[in-house]
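Next up, a chain.

===
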Amino acid sequence: MFPGIVNQITIPKIKMFHITMQKGPKMKIIDTLKITFFTLILTLIGFSAYAQEDVAKAHIKNNVAKWIGNATLITGINAQNIRNTALNQNEIDAQDKVWRAEVKNGGGSMTAAVLSNDVSTFLKNIRDESGGLYTEIFAMDNKGLNVGQSDLTSDFWQGDEAKWQKTFKVGPGAIYVSEVEFDESSQSYQIQVSVTISDPATGAAIGALTIGMNAEML
C-alpha cells in the first residue's frame, strides 16, 4: 500500500544516521533530530506492513472466499488426498526431487501433468481475471503437495513452509501473510497470502491455497 516508503529506505540512507557523541551541543541536537526522523521512518514502515497485511486478509475474506469453495478445486484436492493417503515422507521427498529436476531441465511429464489438470486450469483463469493483481496461485493437499497451480513452482512439496504449516495445520479459517518482497523479474513488490481450504460439505480442512499478489495493487 505504501511502496514508496519502503522503496526509499535503503541501506546507504540508513548509514547516514550514525551518531558521533564527541561532537558539540549543536551537533548533538542535529543527531537527535536525525534519530527522531529515523524512528519515524521505521514506525511508518511497521505501520505499512501491518496495514498491508490487514488489506490482504480482507481481500481473502471479501473476494477469494467467493471461489475457494469451487467444486473443481475441492474435488481435485479431495481426490489427491485419497490417492496419497498412504504416502510417506520418503516418497514425498522423492516426488519433490523429480519435480525440482524437471523445473531445472525446463519441464517434464510430472510438471506437465499438474499444470494441465483441471485445478490448474481453474487457477489460471482466476489469475488471468484478476487484472494483474494475482501473480500466481497454487493449491496444496493435506500433505503440502501441489494439487494445481497457475504457474510453475520451484518445488512440489510445500509442507515444510509457513504457507502450509500456518494454514492447513492451524485449521479452517486460518490466513497467513508473508512479508512484502521486491520481485526483480516484475520490478514490483510482491506478497504471498495463504489460506486454509475447507470442504464446504464437511467444514474440515483439506488443503491450503497460496496467492502471490502485486502488493502495489492492493
